[in-house]
Design goal:
The complex is a heterodimer of chains A (107) and B (193). Chain A is 71% helix and 0% strand. Chain A is mainly α and 107 residues long. The chains are: A mainly alpha (107), B mainly alpha (193).
Chain lengths: 107, 193
């Protein structure tokens, strides 16, 4: 019986492959060509965070919900506005924490 | 390589990538290159039909590109698979500009092979038969069987739909089987006579 099976083809293909090429100075040559990595400047991120924070504050300070929450916080009264605002801030913080942890895990 | 070994290798690669990124550590990248240059150069050498010098040029381009784009590596694929993808993209880019691609493309049209007059060693037959598969079939078999990538990884490297990869692999193997069986039988008959 001379028929050839799929597994035989796989074996023959693997046998005909020479395997990894020996280094023979290749890495040293490439390392000499390797350019310095450009450090990513941090200012665009910092500027974005600052502008975002300012815009967010401006929009919040004109909001009656925020004013009521702030007033309730100052007098120590847990009004609905105070609870909603604090819950939102807590939720956003948790989201940011989750995102940071996910990014850290990726790296 | 077993699954545990593969996972350990992937973890080492991820650690080295993190070191290379966070501290701009050239030594970490050098280690990554030493771990993977052999397979990347073998891949390119096969794609370039054994032209080792051209393969080394493209491999160098591949690693320089990997160094520049290292922050885009997201660990969705193994680092070696990511490198193979860059290498294949470099190969395709070179094909568009270099003359050797046209030279080798002339061989790709032939779909059927006549049985050789004399019985030959099966491995030599296989090398001949491989050259007469379509370019896509050769490329898929190289990545799936010889480089040991899964169908999913080969689809990622070659930027092909998974179904297309599976089809090319099946068709390529079927053609090789048909051709080699015919030759094998011819050789058997000659031995009997």
């Amino acid at each position: 019986m001379n028929s050839i099976h799929d597994d035989d083809i796989d074996v023959l293909l693997r046998q005909s492959f020479d395997g990894p090429t020996p280094d023979a100075g290749f890495c040293d040559r490439v390392m000499q060509q390797l350019p310095a990595r450009r450090r990513r400047s941090a200012w665009p991120l910092a500027a974005g965070v600052l502008v975002g924070a300012v815009l967010c504050s401006l929009s919040l300070f004109t909001s009656p919900l925020w004013r009521a929450a702030w007033h309730g916080w100052l007098v120590g009264e847990w009004s609905t506005s105070t609870i909603i605002t604090l819950s939102m801030m807590g939720g956003m913080s948790l989201l940011a924490l989750g995102w940071t942890l996910a990014e850290a895990d990726d790296h | 390589m077993c699954v545990a070994d593969s996972a350990a290798e992937a973890r080492i690669d991820r650690t080295l990538v993190a070191r290379a990124l966070l501290g701009h550590d050239r030594r970490a990248f050098e280690q990554l290159m030493r771990r993977h240059q052999g397979m990347v150069r073998a891949q390119l050498c096969r794609l370039l039909h054994g032209d080792a010098a051209a393969a080394d040029d493209l491999a160098q381009e591949t690693f320089l590109l990997a160094w520049r784009k290292l922050d885009q590596f997201r660990s969705e694929a193994r680092f070696s698979t990511w490198l193979h993808r860059i290498a294949y993209a470099c190969f395709l880019q070179a094909c568009r500009t270099k003359s050797w691609a046209a030279r080798h493309a002339q061989d790709d049209g032939m779909e059927l092979l006549p049985a050789p007059a004399q019985a030959m060693d099966l491995r030599l037959d296989l090398a001949r038969a491989m050259r007469h598969l379509s370019t896509a079939e050769q490329t898929v078999l190289l990545h799936c069987v010889q480089l040991g990538l899964s169908h999913e990884e080969a689809a990622y490297v070659l930027a092909m739909p998974l179904g297309t990869v599976k089809t090319h692999a099946t068709r390529g193997k079927a053609k090789l089987k048909t051709w080699l069986s015919a030759w094998h039988e011819a050789a058997g008959e000659e031995r009997v006579l």
